[in-house]
Amino acid sequence: MFYTRIPCPKNITHHPDYLNKATRYFPFIGWIVGSISFLAFYIFSLFLSTEIAVIFSIVISVLTTGAFHEDGFADVCDGFGGGWTKEKILMIMKDSAIGAYGAIGLVLLFLLKFRLLSESILLFHVHDSMAVFKTFLLFISAHSLSRLAAISIIFTHEYSREDASSKSKPIAKQFSWKEVFGSFFFGLVPLIVFSLFDFRLILAVIPVFITRYFLARYFQKWIDGYTGDCLGATQQVCEVIFYLSILFLWKFI
């Protein structure tokens, strides 16, 4: 209910305790969104070109999450692009209107996703008989690992806003070893399976978490922690870094 637009039973609420426990399943949502995105790609690829099918897969993934993370990415671009103090950055990010930095950032983000995904898939189809299954694992791994990178920030950093005005506030209150273990389990399993085809692919974890480290460090420097928008931006950036890493590893190592 919190992470996607997928309908849930009416008796499920946004209770803080539920949100805390939901943390461990955030990377598992990547399995679901990645599967839906792949299914859209596969169906459209039967009738259209790979590039057009990739565009439709991106559209479906955005519809599935309600642009939850893309909105966070745009807000972070606007906030950190236009603000020079913690208060100003947080105020800009809270504004629902999108600015020039956010619009430009989203355009570049989607262009990168489109090109990197298209090239990776075409590379699989040229060189591999198991292209469809590997493409499926590519989608799942990208969505789960990037969500792990994002949610892991709450294990190491403090929530930035002092009020309870954000929906992400309850998630930041507490977590146990179950949330940590669950997050890493669901976040890493798809990539581990993917790397069974080529052990070098597991190395994609390194650039993703290096990116996560510097993003978290940047957020800490400017706003003394993170917000929900920061987590969304981290997920989006790390997803792109994952595609870039897989393409690099497949081509050059």
TrEMBL record:
The chain crosses the membrane at residues 25-45, 52-69, 89-112, 132-155, 175-194, 201-219, 231-250. Pathway: Cofactor biosynthesis; adenosylcobalamin biosynthesis; adenosylcobalamin from cob(II)yrinate a,c-diamide: step 7/7. It is found in: Cell membrane. It catalyses: alpha-ribazole + adenosylcob(III)inamide-GDP = adenosylcob(III)alamin + GMP + H(+); alpha-ribazole 5'-phosphate + adenosylcob(III)inamide-GDP = adenosylcob(III)alamin 5'-phosphate + GMP + H(+). Keywords: Cell membrane, Cobalamin biosynthesis, Magnesium, Membrane, Transferase, Transmembrane, Transmembrane helix. It is a multi-pass membrane protein. Its main location: membrane. It comes from the Bacteria. InterPro entries: CobS. Its EC number is 2.7.8.26. Its cofactor is Mg(2+). PANTHER family: ADENOSYLCOBINAMIDE-GDP RIBAZOLETRANSFERASE (PTHR34148). Joins adenosylcobinamide-GDP and alpha-ribazole to generate adenosylcobalamin (Ado-cobalamin). Also synthesizes adenosylcobalamin 5'-phosphate from adenosylcobinamide-GDP and alpha-ribazole 5'-phosphate. Belongs to the CobS family. HAMAP family: CobS. This is Adenosylcobinamide-GDP ribazoletransferase. It comes from Flavobacterium chungbukense.
